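Try this one yourself first.
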């Protein structure tokens, strides 16, 4: 399947896509990103603890979906996360030719243990639970969750999360979206779990579930390119009002974490993250908030 980026969408759902300062704490339960400050000027390629000397090894899942990547090719620099990854590499002093991409499944990456990459970028939500097994950089993006269903569904007109309690819901395994179903929507039926969001979308298309939950940018992509007759019911913030934040994932205790955070912080400060967000994550329609 050929994936199409968001280039055809025109307006920005400003209230839905808020890019917070990369220096802000990731969670009120404890800062799950790097705690050790590092000056970017001190982060030279020759001094970094890399899995392969002279090469910045970045991982992501396969397939790699729009709008985060384009044409399932992380190395082309297109898509928000591909562009962010190369911008981080540049801040750390790596040329594009010195960046190598490897494949790592979402579930594989969040498990404890030694990694075959320097950083992984794959919409990893920063959380205290995950931070027990891996490190995160400071956040490079924040997003709301969204409910996706089919046009004509009895849930298409829902205006509150309470109206979804009777729905059969689905989401990708080990994601904040799945946590939101279980802990916030609390449906009567146990949610169905899928290996990736594309499989969840197919289950919705086949009417095996009434609705699925994904982060808002992914919801826009799914309803515009993958789900025939798909519609976004609304958006909502994670439990207790916390906004979902994505960070680069690294091995637990990695000495590279402070430098990865310093690079993200620099990209936030100089406006690069905002620029890339506007380029790749522009949205078409305001989405109502579900309470």
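Now uncover the answer:
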């Amino acid at each position: 399947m050929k994936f199409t980026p968001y280039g055809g969408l025109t307006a920005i759902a400003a209230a839905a896509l808020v890019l917070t300062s990369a220096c802000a704490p990731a969670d009120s339960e404890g800062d799950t990103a790097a705690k050790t400050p590092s000056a970017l000027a001190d982060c030279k390629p020759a001094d970094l603890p890399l899995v392969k000397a002279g090469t910045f090894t970045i991982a992501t899942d396969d397939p790699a979906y729009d709008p985060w990547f384009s044409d399932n090719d992380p190395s082309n620099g297109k898509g928000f996360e591909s562009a962010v990854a190369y911008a981080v590499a540049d801040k750390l002093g790596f040329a594009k030719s010195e960046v190598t991409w490897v494949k790592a499944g979402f579930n594989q990456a969040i498990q404890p243990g030694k990694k075959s990459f320097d950083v992984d970028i794959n919409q990893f939500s920063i959380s205290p639970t995950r931070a027990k097994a891996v490190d995160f950089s400071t956040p490079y993006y924040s997003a709301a969750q969204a409910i996706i269903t089919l046009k004509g569904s009895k849930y298409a007109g829902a205006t509150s999360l309470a109206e979804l309690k009777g729905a059969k819901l689905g989401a990708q395994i080990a994601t904040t979206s799945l946590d939101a179903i279980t802990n916030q929507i609390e449906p009567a039926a146990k949610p169905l779990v899928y290996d990736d969001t594309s499989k969840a979308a197919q289950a919705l298309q086949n009417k095996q579930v009434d609705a699925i939950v994904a982060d808002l940018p992914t919801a826009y992509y799914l309803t515009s390119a993958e789900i025939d007759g798909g519609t976004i019911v609304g958006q909502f913030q994670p439990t207790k009002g916390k906004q979902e934040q994505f960070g680069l994932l690294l091995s637990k205790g990695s000495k590279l974490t402070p430098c990865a955070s310093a690079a993200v912080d620099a990209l936030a400060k100089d406006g690069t993250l905002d620029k890339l967000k506007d380029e790749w994550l522009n949205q078409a329609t305001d989405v109502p908030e579900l309470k």
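Discussion: The chain is about 25% helix and 15% strand. Residues 75 and 256 are 21 Å apart (CA to CA).
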